[in-house]
Amino acid sequence: QSALTQPPSASGSPGQSVTISCTGTSSDVGGYKYVSWYQQHPGKAPKLMIYEVSKRPSGVPDRFSGSKSGNTASLTVSGLQAEDEADYYCSSHAVTISAYVIFGGGTKLTVL
Amino acid sequence: QLQLQESGPGLVKPSETLSLTCSVSGGSISSSSYYWAWIRQPPGKGLEWIGSIGSMYYSGKIYYRPSLKSRVTISVDTSKNQFSLKLTSVTAADTAVYYCTREEESRSSYWGQGTLVTVSS
Description:
The complex is a heterodimer. Chain A is mostly beta strands. Helices cover 0% and strands 46% of the residues of chain A. The relative contact order of chain A is 0.34. By secondary structure, chain B is mainly β. The termini of chain B are far apart. Classes of the chains: A mainly beta, B mainly beta. Chains A and B meet through strand 7 and strand 8 of A and strand 5 and strand 10 of B.
């Protein structure tokens, strides 16, 4: 079960928008609506930012948005702020012989 | 507010069994319609889902990461409101921060703070 493919790094200046991609297959990202995104600051547990492709949990700013096209999901952070600098991971429901959850390799977002 | 807390040895010898427990507070592990999961993160690397176990609502159904299935056991102790992870025949590659989470529809909304387990002699 290879990890979903994410770019290792992304960056943007304060106020700008940045999009992070997450590419899988029809057995995971492309086949199900259960794609999530997590934010992780150094030394902290991950925090759920997006679920079911584009839904935001209560308390997550609407600057964070998600979408999916085919086997690729995307996370867009608009109006970048310094506190958005973190690692971001996508995940997806996956099914081969049985069901499981697969994560992407992570993207380090730098706010310039 | 739901809280999860991992506990267990921070050092395990190669070839031995890693055992961790997750204590859940602020909610019943048995009465809710959720899965309870373990996720790990090797130092400096990404997240890796290990497996999850369903509440009684899901008849305790268990799912494991295919590549770890032969070495992993996840169980629930409803009397203690805890769930556990056992990973056998560990090697240095199993060194990681281990997180327990509450999972629903393949997303983890609540996470423990994580516990570092080092495999070394």
